[in-house]
Every structure is written in C-alpha cells, then in structure tokens.
Amino acid sequence: MSCWMPQCPALSMCRGLAALPITCLERAKDLKTRLGILLHKPELGHKAGSSSKLQLGSRRRDSSREVLEWRESFDQLLKSKSGVNAFHTFLKTEFSEENLDFWLACEDFKKTRSKTKLASKANRIFEEFVQSEAPREV
C-alpha cells in the first residue's frame, strides 16, 4: 500500500497503514508521547542492591531502549513483539484492532512460500477482512 498522505513527513510510518483512520494515527502519536514520558519516571530506573534487582533494572533499561526506538520509528514498533502488543492494546481502545490484525496477516502472507498455504491464507484474509460484510472488515 502506498501512503495516503501526499506530504507525509515519515512515509515509512504510513507504509502499510493506509487503511487506518487519521484519528487512529493521531492517537498512536499521543500514545508514543505518553510512552516516552513513562521512560523518564524514576521508578523505571535501575536501583543498586541485590543481583536480582540489578537484573530487573537491566531488563527495564533494555525495554526503555526498545520503547525509545519506537519513538524514532513506527517500523521499529512493528518489529517488536512487545511493541505490536502495546499497539494492539491501544487499537482495542479505539475499536480498530482489526486494522493491525489485517496488516499482520498480510505480512505473514508475504513470508509464505508454500503455494498451498498461500491460497489458504489469501482466502482466510479475504473472508475475515476484505469481503463485503466480513466479520472484521477493514
């Protein structure tokens, strides 16, 4: 899919998401800002102490780095399992999670090599997301 915004400053963010309503993208930007604010909260930082606390702090720093990458690139969020989960949770609040599910199904379809599986996946995508009156129509 191509970008539906002619002067889109970040075409890579728009690629594959043309089906999402503009309000959803605006809310995603708001979520991105909120996640960034959470990163600066002191309780997310590392505390000195036992080795288990040290490991927990290290995992939090790794997660913080990952979330910071999401701020830089929507593609990074989509490459991250926890990023996709967070975005999916957000989309549920907007009653539009079928858009992400459709995109994920299409990405899985593109990776499929078996012709038998391709036909089966294409049919499932069509029936679930594309055909008129589909249960999760996009």
Main structural class? mainly alpha
What share of the residues lie within helices?
55-70%
* Mean pLDDT over the full residue set: 74
Radius of gyration: 18 Å
Named at the architecture level, the CATH assignment of the domain at 96-137 is: Orthogonal Bundle
Based on CA inertia axes, which overall geometry fits?
A: flat
What is the CATH homologous superfamily assignment of the domain at 96-137?
A: Regulator of G-protein Signalling 4, domain 2
Q: Which band does the percent of strand residues land in?
A: under 5%
How many helices? Answer: 7
According to DSSP, the number of beta strands is 0
Low-confidence stretches: 1-6, 8-14, 43-58
Order of helices and strands: HHHHHHH
Major β-sheet, in short? none
Q: Report the top-level CATH class of the domain at 96-137.
A: Mainly Alpha
Q: How far from one another are the termini?
A: 14 Å
CATH topology of the domain at 96-137: Regulator of G-protein Signalling 4, domain 2
Signal peptide: 1-19
Protein name: Regulator of G-protein signaling 16
Domain RGS: 73-138
Membrane topology: Lipid-anchor
